[in-house]
Write a structure and sequence with these properties.
Rossmann fold; 25 strands; 3 domains; four-stranded parallel β-sheet; alpha/beta; nine-stranded mixed β-sheet; binds adenosine monophosphate
Length: 514
């Protein structure tokens, strides 16, 4: 029996004329139209020469057809490789070279810049898809029959590769199988009681696990519907909330909703559950939200590599600051970071996960894959946590040097590599400091080369051309030397403390992504 997640979707929702989504302009896509559209995209990819197992790289806006393309890629047995729209051509080049996709779908605007890069990386075809659902792939799909039969896949066949930023500066492609995605979606449907009566207000991006799998994928498999918005815009969310039964967001969404005048319990009377993840939701935001709306936000914890691992209970206490208990089928342990040996209850250690949700490994990277798993198959998340006396998991920090800003991950090493390549920079350290809106913001501490007059705006200008906007430091500080320990390692804890104290109330004038 095939375990192609698209075939399973077909068997669950048949050719229903119920709505799958309503877009921002009010256009409805039924389940019948979703299945037909996805089959047309599968046929279109096949007509371009894509074979099962080929990667399809996609850097497009969040549109209705980008979702059809996602399901069509799965139907064709190909591997969906979404790319953050904020990535620069410099960044996309790396992903194309590493993943070797057969096809790239991008915006018409970025086509002139990406086409030669794609050709050099061996990509066979570059197609376009833009807001308003126009583009060469849209035209091609429109002319196809909708009778495509989903390609047979086993649970271990690849469905998607999502790149996570790498601690050494280079991103790693997390290989997710049909089985990984299906098992987690079914678990979430059960844990959060999702049914065909639900309507999710969907404002997350769809190039990330959260919006793509936890949001759109889970809703589709539940036969539920979505109000599908191109991005998060707080006043627009307020207008749409009364028609929804569910909402999912990163913590920044919640703090922004709270900052909206007129946001109160009257708008959310139809909502069954608010869900938060991808970054820590502060206990204070949880409490403020509850006193304003009467809703206790349900916080869950996951990673690109593992899908979702834990969730606060649907029925039962949703504990502010905690991320809940392991989901069904997910084994979670708190281990000694050095040895992987399980620690006594209540102790703080490395959060490690095993289960059908856990990815197959990093794409063409045996070394990084081996380093990420223990001998008994547990995946080392890089997060530090402890389990309290009632079995709730608390995330208390990260072993990995990661900044999460507005729900987006930034690995300092990647930014430091770009900084150090600037002529006037002798050395640099990138840290995250608390920020009231983004949770954390990226800050660079730079040592100039002797006699150099480089300014903060010079640095930001150079980085803006190389890195996605959310990775570019919001502030740059110049120092004579970086603090180092006796082993010569930069003491980032000292830098974090210094700059956190120097700018305790700083709202930074920055822009949120999310
Ligand atoms: P990503 O792979 O982009 O989903 O990022 C995964 C990382 O986000 C995890 O390793 C955690 O550090 C962090 N994360 C996700 N959910 C939560 C949460 N509810 N609370 C705290 N950190 C979280």
């Amino acid at each position: 029996m095939t375990e192609n997640i698209f075939a399973i979707l077909e068997s669950r929702v048949a050719a229903s004329e119920r709505p799958f989504l309503t877009d921002g302009a009010g256009a409805v896509v039924t389940y019948g139209a979703l299945l037909r559209g996805a089959r047309q995209y599968a046929q279109a990819l096949t007509s371009l020469g894509a074979q099962p197992g080929d990667r399809i790289a996609v850097q497009t806006d969040k549109t209705v057809h980008s979702i059809l393309l996602f399901f069509g890629t799965l139907a064709a047995g190909c591997v969906y490789l979404p790319l953050n729209t904020a990535y620069t051509a410099h960044e996309v080049k790396y992903f194309l070279e590493d993943a070797g996709p057969a096809i790239l779908v991008c915006s018409a605007e970025s086509l002139p810049e990406l086409e030669p890069i794609a050709a050099r990386a061996g990509v066979r075809r570059v197609m376009t898809l833009d807001s308003g659902d126009i583009g060469t792939i849209v035209d091609l799909a429109a002319g196809q029959e909708a009778s495509f039969a989903a390609v047979a896949r086993s649970a271990d066949d690849l469905a998607a590769i999502l790149y996570t930023s790498g601690t050494t500066g280079l991103s790693k492609g997390a290989m997710l199988s049909h089985g990984n995605l299906l098992s987690n979606a079914l678990t979430l449907i059960d844990a959060w009681r999702i049914s065909s009566d639900d309507c999710l207000l969907h404002a997350l991006p769809i190039y990330h696990t959260h919006g793509l799998f936890v949001g759109a994928g889970t809703m589709a498999l539940a036969g539920a519907s979505m109000i599908y918005l191109p991005r998060f815009d707080a006043p627009e969310i307020l207008r749409r909330l009364p028609a929804a039964t569910m909402f999912m967001g990163v913590p920044t969404f919640y703090s922004r909703l709270l900052a909206q005048p007129g946001f109160d319990g009257t708008l959310v009377s139809n909502i069954r559950v608010f869900i938060s993840g991808s970054a820590p939701l502060s206990a204070q935001t949880h409490r403020d939200f509850q006193s304003r709306t009467g809703h206790a936000i349900l916080e869950r914890y996951g990673l690109t590599e593992t899908n979702m691992n834990t969730s606060n209970p649907y029925d039962g206490e949703r504990r502010p600051g905690a991320v809940g208990m392991p989901l069904a089928d997910v084994a979670l342990r708190i281990a000694d970071p050095a040895t992987g040996a399980a620690l006594a209850p209540g102790e703080t250690g490395s959060i490690e996960i095993r289960g059908p949700n856990v990815f197959l490994g990093y794409w063409r990277n045996r070394e990084k894959t081996a380093a990420a798993f223990r001998a008994d198959g547990f995946f080392i998340t890089g997060d530090l946590g402890r389990i309290d006396e009632d079995e709730y998991l608390w995330i208390v920090g990260r072993e990995k040097d990661l900044v999460i800003t507005g729900g987006f991950n930034v690995y300092p090493a990647e930014v430091e590599t770009e900084l150090d390549a600037i002529g006037g920079v002798a050395e640099s350290a990138v840290i995250g400091i608390p920020h009231p809106d983004f949770g954390e913001k990226v800050v660079a501490v730079v040592v100039r080369r002797e006699a150099e007059t480089l300014t903060a705006s010079d640095v930001i200008d150079v980085l803006s051309k190389r890195l996605a906007r959310f990775k570019v430091p919001k502030q740059v500080f110049f120092v004579a030397a970086l603090p180092r320990n006796t082993m010569g390692k930069v003491q980032k804890n000292i830098l974090r403390e210094t700059y956190r104290r120097a700018f305790p109330q700083d709202a930074g004038g920055a822009r949120a992504e999310g």
